[in-house]
Design brief:
Layout (H helix, E strand, L loop, with lengths): L1 H18 L5 H10 L29 H13 L5 E8 L12 H12 L2 E8 L5 E8 L6 H17 L3 E5 L6 H12 L5
Parallel strand pairs: 3-4
Antiparallel strand pairs: 1-2, 2-3
Helix pairs in contact: 3-6
Length: 190
Amino acid sequence: MKFFILLFLVVGAVLYIAVNKKQPRMARKDTVKELPEETDLVPSATLGIPEELGYRQCGPLFTPAERSFYGVLLKAIDSDQHQVFGKVRVADVLEPQPSRNRSQWQKAFNAISAKHFDFIICKTDDLTPVAAIELDDKSHNQKHRQKRDELLMKICKQSKLPLLRIPAQYAYKTDVLKMMLAKELGNGVE
């Protein structure tokens, strides 16, 4: 009986190695070198994406309202002390508390992984986030956006990251924005 168990393990190991055998390291390097210079290193076909689909640029990073606000925001902060980043993924700034329950942690992470902040203000020296900004246009009146906004407010409060919700406007005044930032953050932004 022991003989059959041992034989089964050996045959299983041999089959596993045969099925999962990788190319030698040198062969993979040579394959990359043989590609013509104009060929992508990862062709769309190898990603399972039809060639006719492909990719294209989306256009400007910010909407006109976000771009207008961004220009005023840059004037409202002291650039020696702070930097502004736009369209930052929430999960790159905040994360769920560690948990022994991996399923619960993953559910909490998934709730934020596909969301982004409109703007993040960070300390210049180490790029630690000091505030998040959401520019609220009329889309924030939609029910699903209100749920998203509630979630962001809740997790920012839990993590002690100030979240400024600023109504979208046709034009912004630098002095007014400076006052809003000072009120929310103390004098740490100016």
